[in-house]
């Protein structure tokens, strides 16, 4: 077994108001093959973990945080729980703006048909980080996590959650968390 490095790694966080400490756990890297080997129940629990993380990021004590590189490769599994391990692409503040149009997400970046309107409030794009996290998770992550092999009774709920991550429903992280929690309950 490889030995873990015995060094402390750090990163400068621009715009930080005070000291910031981030600790991550060691775990198994999450890859596509590993996801396919998980049971549909385990994958539904991972989807709940994702929704919990997005809700936490949207309501952190530092304000709404964005993970600008939200992909499967950023996560590890620790005792069956999904953990964010790569936080070097964390945005601490909402983007600045002058006009509401400054806050419209680019269609190409998120493959959106019609981007959801966001509003410029006090010089910041209100809700941008939360929306960005949801859409980024929907691009590369959630469609691979939610199971294709779940019972037929769960398929409409799974499809609705996947669509929400892809911007087809205007759900915030609280609504995603609620729907994911309900899916876990239905699956048990």
TrEMBL record:
GO terms for cellular component: extracellular region. GO terms for biological process: skeletal system development. InterPro entries: FAM69_kinase_dom, PKDCC. It comes from the Eukaryota. Residues 30-145 form the FAM69 protein-kinase domain. Signal peptide: none annotated. One of its GO terms (molecular function) is non-membrane spanning protein tyrosine kinase activity. Pfam families: PIP49_C. PANTHER family: PROTEIN KINASE DOMAIN-CONTAINING PROTEIN (PTHR46448). This is FAM69 protein-kinase domain-containing protein. It comes from Rhynocoris fuscipes.
């Amino acid at each position: 077994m490889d030995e873990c490095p015995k060094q402390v790694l750090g990163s400068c966080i621009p715009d930080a108001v005070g000291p910031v400490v981030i600790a991550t756990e060691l775990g198994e890297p999450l890859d596509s093959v590993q996801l396919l080997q998980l049971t549909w129940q385990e994958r539904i629990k991972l989807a709940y973990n994702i929704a919990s993380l997005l809700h936490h990021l949207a309501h952190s004590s530092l304000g709404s945080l964005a993970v600008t590189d939200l992909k499967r490769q950023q996560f590890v599994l620790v005792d069956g729980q999904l953990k964010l391990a790569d936080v070097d692409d964390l945005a601490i503040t909402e983007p600045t703006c002058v006009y509401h149009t400054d806050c419209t997400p680019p269609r190409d970046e998120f493959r959106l048909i019609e981007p959801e309107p966001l509003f410029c409030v006090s010089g910041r794009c209100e809700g941008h980080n939360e929306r960005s996290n949801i859409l980024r998770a929907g691009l590369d992550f959630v469609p691979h996590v939610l199971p294709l092999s779940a019972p037929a009774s769960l398929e409409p709920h799974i499809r609705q959650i996947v669509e929400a991550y892809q911007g087809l429903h205007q759900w915030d992280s609280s609504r995603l968390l609620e729907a994911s929690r309900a899916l876990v309950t239905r699956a048990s």
